[in-house]
Amino acid sequence: MKDFFKRYDIPRKLLSILLALALWVIVVSSSSSQRPQTYSGVSAIFVGADQLETDYGLKIIEGIDQKFTIKVSSTFDTMSKFNSTRSRVSVNLAALNITEPGTYTIHTDSDCQVNVYNARITNTEILYPSSFQIVVDSISSKEVPVTVEVEGLPSADYMYDAVEANQDTVTVSGPASVVAKIKKAVAIVPAADSSHLTKTANLLVSCTFLDENGEIVDPVYLTSTPSELPVKIPVYRVAKIPLTVDLIESGSLTKDSVDVTIEPAEISVYGAEEIVSRLTEVKLGSINLRAVDLTEPKTMPITLPSSVNRMVGEPGTAKVTIKAAGMSTREITVNEIELQNDGTDPNLRVNLTTPSVIVRLQAESGALGAVTAEDIKVRAVFNADSLGVGTHEVEVEVQPYGIANFTVLNVEPSKVTIEITQQDEAPTEEEPAQ
Q: Which candidate, 1, 102, 366, 427, has a CA 20 to 30 Å from the CA of 388?
């Protein structure tokens, strides 16, 4: 092994390599050694843009997003610590003498300067582009109508009422050519801020500007007053509430002896959470069973509590039908109608011209099914002497037989027609002459 090291002079060669490496490090780290580095995508700073707007009412609308490629050179130590993300290219607008709208060409070698924000770096250069253009336009403002849209949906059993904004217009300012395209503004409440709300929400919403075709106008150079529109999303609780009536009992008619049907049985309403959540019924009012009419439903107004509203399409009245419990109704045609003349004139004759009447009965379901027309007596009572010769309509009386707990709901027709005629008197013998 010793012969091998001596033969190929290994120690001396290793020492030479180490010395060369050390010398390279010294040279690279020397303060006088420059190390260049290229960076792309560097943004611009337009010096004098605020003054341009103040003095001439002008604003850059194109070219402001121009990017640059730059070269920076410095020592190894400096470049190793350099942060390129802070680098900017300063554009000197004052050198262009801009006083009116138009397109202007900027030469990077004379009108621009690289700012690296490092005092130890003095050697910089713009590699690309050699020149670029900016478009400058005058500033104008105008008032446009604004509407509010809500993207989110409410939670179950809740609804959103019409969104309220504290103003119906906003003022938009920006380049005249851009502002001229704007026809309206819309404040869109995103779904993230407007979904599943259970309480009224007050929000600040930024505006989007639209042209006459409803297309979005680029907002980069625009400002609005106010910058955010205060809006209110009213949130209401929705519920279906049953309709009820209070029954005033009378004699044999008690609450348990009648069936009550209300149409509709319930009503959809909305209102404040604290009110609707406690609402268990909507009372239509009171019905006295002594005076109730079992022949026709009773129409009653639906009066809601204060701050509670009916949903669109819900009725303002309800029909209440009351009948005896366990009872049914049936219509029976009766052809036999009795005429009862309480007059005394034997020369008046009465003829019935109404062939039949329809009697509508209410009774216990089992008994009502066995009733026939023969079980119902229909009588027309009148006084022909008082009525006199002619055609008359007289009321009828109805009396069912063999039926318990019945009610005559109505008779159709309720009056029958009779004809009263005068019968000629019989001839008498002549009195003898005196």
A: 427
What radius of gyration do the chain's Cα atoms show? 51
User: Cβ distance 102 to 60 under 8 Å?
Assistant: no
Tokens representing residue 41 in the block: 């995508």
Question: Is the pLDDT reported for residue 256 higher than 90?
Answer: no
Q: Calculate ∠ Cα 326-332-333, nearest 5°.
A: 170
d(CA 128, CA 89): 11
Rounded distance, CA 62 to CA 46, Å? 12
Q: What is the dihedral of CA 314, 317, 322, 327, to 10 degrees?
A: -40
Identify the band that residue 130 occupies on the pLDDT scale cut at 50, 70 and 90. Answer: very high
Residue 367: CB atoms within 10 A of its CB come to 17
pLDDT for the residue numbered 367: 75
**Rounded Cα–Cα distance for residues 216 and 110 (Å):** 38
Vertex 21, ends 20 and 24: CA angle to 5°?
90
Tokens representing 190 are 């995103």
Helices (H) and strands (E) in the chain, counts: 10, 32
Other Cβ atoms less than 10 A from the Cβ of 262: the count is 19
Give the integer Cα–Cα distance in Å for 160 and 253: 46
Question: What type of residue is 294?
Answer: L
What predicted TM-score, i.e. pTM, was given to this entire model?
0.53
Reduced to 3 states, what is the DSSP secondary structure of residue 85?
helix
Q: 124 φ, ψ to 5°?
A: -130, 160
Q: Is the pLDDT of residue 238 over 80?
A: yes
Distance, CA of 428 to chain centre: 95
Give the tens place of pLDDT for each residue, 52-106. 989 998 989 899 999 999 999 888 777 877 888 889 999 999 889 999 999 999 9
